[in-house]
Amino acid sequence: MAVLPIRIMGDPVLHAPAGLVEEITDEIRTLVADMFETMDAAPGVGLAGPQVGVPLRLFTYSYTDDDGAPWRGVVINPELWQRPLDPGDPDEDEESEGCLSFPGERFPLRRSDEVLVTGTDLEGEPVRIQVAGWRARIMQHEFDHLDGILYVDRLGDGDWKTAQKIARKRGWGRPGQAWTPGVDDIDA
Ligand code: ZN
Fold this sequence. Notes:
The protein has helices at 26-41, 133-146, 157-169, and strands spanning 6-7, 46-48, 58-64, 70-82, 96-99, 102-108, 114-120, 126-132, 178-179. It is α+β, with helices and mostly antiparallel strands. The chain has one domain: Peptide Deformylase. The mean pLDDT is 95.
């Protein structure tokens, strides 16, 4: 197992739709094990294939509720359905999210409050994840990565401009930028 470098905004792999996983091979199993290790090391609540430079439709997730119950897994070739967004502006405190591919920042973003995700697990068995609240946000965020969408692409005008400014200042927004948890000193 290995902690993989995480691509940063501007790397083309993050901005193009990913392809289907055709077959669950040993290579895919190793990739998923490495993605869990990378996500935990970051630490993050989710990690999608493109974020580690692999343009395939799969993501890992890991989130522990306030009551301490762990929620963790991998979805291969996911499909996602979501309830329509509630109208209005997102709340800075309750609705801010971050991304390991735009590390160290958080911005408010309205997300659907409930989603259904289907796909398969690493054994090829069907999975069906119906979740609400923060878990639904994680699913939408990771699913977006598979379509080449970063959450900063979805921000309102003011925050979008701020994000672009930050990216320019840090030399992001161009190919080849990455950071490795445990190696590079970034507070994600
Ligand atoms: Zn992300």
